[in-house]
Fold this protein.
Amino acid sequence: MRTIVLASASALLVLVAAAHGADSGTHNRYKWRDAQGNLHFDDALPVEALQFGYDVMNASGIVVKHVERARTAEELKADDEAAARKAAEKHAADELAKADQQTIAAYPTENELIGSQQAQISMLEQNIHATEVSLQSQEKSLTEMLSHAADLDRTGKPVPPSLQSQIDVLRRNVEQQKNYIATKQKEKEAAGKRFEVELTHYRELRAKAAH
């Protein structure tokens, strides 16, 4: 398949060159080097020249055009990947610039940005506190029910299914609320670090705009 493609490309180049020569009244020649570095001249363009690249010379022997060698499938793939990376980097840079503009527009002063950050931290703290209050209540109820179940067990009485069901529900709720609090604590810590970076970047943007 590669030989067919190269041969077709060669034939097309020969036709184009012939047409150009007929129009201009000149006759082009081709110069190239093979894999061993040997120099070749020919009136017709061979497939081998496409593999290594060649020069087009006019009737006076002056090089009027240089054609690079045919690129391999691997090289073409690498070119495509490089182009995709470059496009992705440009897109990321454009998005960052857009985000910077939006930040400056949303927070004209540093105090406004800090106020927004503190409000978000405060919201997380409120969620944590409310869950902690609920957790304390749930744990108290669970302790009381477990104590009641233990009293029944000591007197040889069975624990009612309804009581056991309530104990199971409370245990699940307590565990879920503990996990929720731990998650929100991590969010608060991550937000604090992120806000420090944002504030530093905001100050850099303001300093750059001032110059």
User: Anything to note?
Assistant: Confidence is low (pLDDT under 50) at residues 1-25. The chain is about 75% helix and 10% strand. The radius of gyration is 38 Å.
